[in-house]
Each structure stands twice: as C-alpha cells, then as structure tokens.
Amino acid sequence: MPSALLPEGYVVPTSRWTDPSTRMRELLDTEPFLFGPGVYDPQGAELAMYYGFKAVYFSGYSFAIGHLGTTDMDLYSGPEIADGARRTISALRKFQLTMAVGDPEKGTPPKHLEIPPVVVDMDGGYGNLFNVQRTTELYVTAGVAAAHLEDQVLPKRCGHIGGKALISADEMIGKLRMARAVAEDLGRPDFVVIARTDGVSAVDAPEKSRGIELAIERALRYLDSGIPDLLWCEFPTSEREPVERFADQVRRRFPEARFAFNWSSSFKWFNDPDPITFAQLGDLGYRFLFITLGAQHAMAHGLSTLLQGMSETQEQAYIELQRKEWEKGADLPSKSHHFFSGVPYHQLVGESFGGSRLGTKFQEKLAEERVV
Question: Is residue 307 domain-resident?
C-alpha cells in the first residue's frame, strides 16, 4: 500500500499497520520457531530486518555493553533501555520507508521489507511492581511486541554470572500480572509476556529445592497464573538433557506450553560435540529463540580486526575493508552509508514536500567510482 510518508508511486507492505504483538503471535503460531538476532542499537536491528529475520531481540546485556560500556548487573534503568528500544523501533519503521525507495539515481530498485516484531529485555522490572507498571507502559507505547521479566532479586545479574537469588514466586506473579494489566489498559491485549526463571542456577531462593526441579516448579506456578505467553528457563550450560527435561516436565501439565530459549553467547558452542539446533529446539516447544549478544560479538570482532590492521598498516587496512564491502556480489547495504541511512529517500521526500535545499537537483554530480 502507499504511505503518506512516501513519494507517489512507492509502496510498503500492508503489515506496516499490523500491531507488532499481533504479528509476533501470528509468527509463533505458524513458524516452526521464531528466531530473533540479539541487537542493542538501531543499526543492528535494521541489518537484521534487511536480511529478512522475522523478529529482533533487544538484549539487556548488549545494551549495557553498547551504551554504558559495563556489565549486566542492573546498572541501567528502565527508562534508559525503554528509550533505546523506542529509538530502535522508530528506526525500523523509517528504514522500511527508505528501502522502499531504493536509490533511483543509481538504479537501485526498491526493497520491500517487513518490520520484525521487537522483543525487549525487562530484567526484573527495575524495582517493584509499580516500576514494572511504568516500564511496561514505556515499552507498549514504543511499539515493543514482547518483553520478558525474570524472577531474580534486584539488583539482578546476567543469568550466567554467579550469585543469583530469587524473589518469591508470588512477587514474580504480581509483576507478571501488572505487565499484562498495563498492556490491556493501553488497548494492546496481544502484548506478549515472557516469564523467565533463573531457578536452575540460583544460589538463594525462598524455596528449599534447588536446580532444575525448582525451575520446573516455578514455571508451573507462573503458568498457573494464566499470564505468560512464553516461559524462559535460563540454563547454565549448553547441555541438552536439562533443556529437554524442562520442556517435557512442564508440558505434562500444560501440553500447549511454549518456551523461549537463549542460545547463549556465554557458551562455547564450538566445543560442544553435538550442539542443539534451532530446529530441534522448535520440536521441543521452544518457539522463540535468540542469541543475546550476537551483534555485540560481531561488532567487536569486526572493529577489533580493523583496528588491529590499522595499527600495523594504517590506511591500507581500511582500504582492504572497502574492497570487501564493494566486491562484486557482496550484499552489504551499509557499504554506502548514504544509501543505508536513507539519503535517496530524504532527497525525494524533501523535494516533494518542498524542503529547503533538498531534492536531487541539489546533488553534486560526482563520479560513482570515486565516492559512495
């Protein structure tokens, strides 16, 4: 369909106007599994969208590293990560428009991209259930499709950092109920609520039992509340048996239960002789899958490689990067930062709306082989 934000003759997918939570529920119902690459900023989310991923996971740990340069121990607040998510979702909507224009001057055709629903980390809610109320409102009004809450004592810590303690199951259920109530009050009943338990590796909890049995007990209690759409159990290793056991035991009481799974960056999957696959997880009922720090590791690897090269060969390392970006057949939209950030779109729309000094007539005619 056409959009008022596009020049005449250009269109975007009609799903642009579908509630993102509704879209996520449709995908959970129809896909063997829904995978969301873990990102922490708008550009990472845009790249996931460009390559056709049907969901995006906005990671709290990655946000802590990428925006504060620190670790995942509740060192940022709810409004901070909510604003990061808001800017990311806004960027995805804008990116859909810019890609729908392509670059007419250079013959780049329009690319019609679906906006992936964004799932955002809510940690332990950043306080009591009224902090959950505030954060959920920020998420829902930002267009977040889903959020997960965990049952850790605050300040929480990454599920793969030692010393985790749990709040009571009753307190956790109160937080889940609040998240659901806020979404319904805002007219977003499809908002997807994910309940996470760290029972497997917590060192302190109100209950006496520990380990996988506690995680299963917690999961059943959360499902008894009727609130969670998905359950996430944080596992300490890549071992298969606990993953299979958790799903099996929960589904004995709740046969339709669906799970989220963190294919965690904390595990050395390359040392696992038989790493569990996404398809196998989907068969077990793990319907939303994600790699929390995928984008962070990829960015750090790429930038480290460039910086190491430049420390040895100066400008030659950057020239080599450009050669890889621009080699024939490489589908890297960010190789032209002008195209990726939407300069052609802004020129066209600026001209049609009458913006000052906008439009292709104000562009310099420079040799394409010399500039991006």
Answer: no
- Whether 300 is covered by a domain: the verdict is no
Q: Does the pTM of the predicted model rise above 0.85?
A: yes
Rounded Cα gap, residues 57 and 88, in angstroms: 11
Which domain range does residue 39 map to? 14-292
pLDDT higher than threshold 90 for residue 237: yes
- Both tokens of residue 126? 């950043």
Examine residue 120 and state whether it is found in any structural domain, yes or no.
Answer: yes
Residue 367 above 90 pLDDT? no
Q: Residue 243: which of 284, 273, 274 has the closest Cα? A: 284
What value, to the nearest 5°, has the Cα angle with vertex 361 and ends 360 and 363?
65
pLDDT, tens digit (0-9, with 9 covering 90-100), for 39-49: 999 999 999 99
Q: Report strand pairing: 146-150 vs 56-58.
A: unpaired
What pLDDT is recorded for position 369? 75
Residue 360 has pLDDT above 70, yes or no: no
**Is 181 inside any structural domain?**
yes
CATH number of the CATH domain containing 218: 3.20.20.60
Cα–Cα separations (whole angstroms), residue 230 to 74, 143, 175, 363: 23, 19, 15, 51
Of 49, 158, 214, 243, which residue is the catalytic one?
158
* Chain centroid offset of residue 125 CA: 17
Q: Is 158 a catalytic residue?
A: yes
Split into its structural domains, the chain has a count of: 1
Residue range 244-297, pLDDT digits in tens = 999 999 999 999 999 999 999 999 999 999 999 999 999 999 999 999 999 999
Tokens 């562009």 label which residue?
Answer: 363
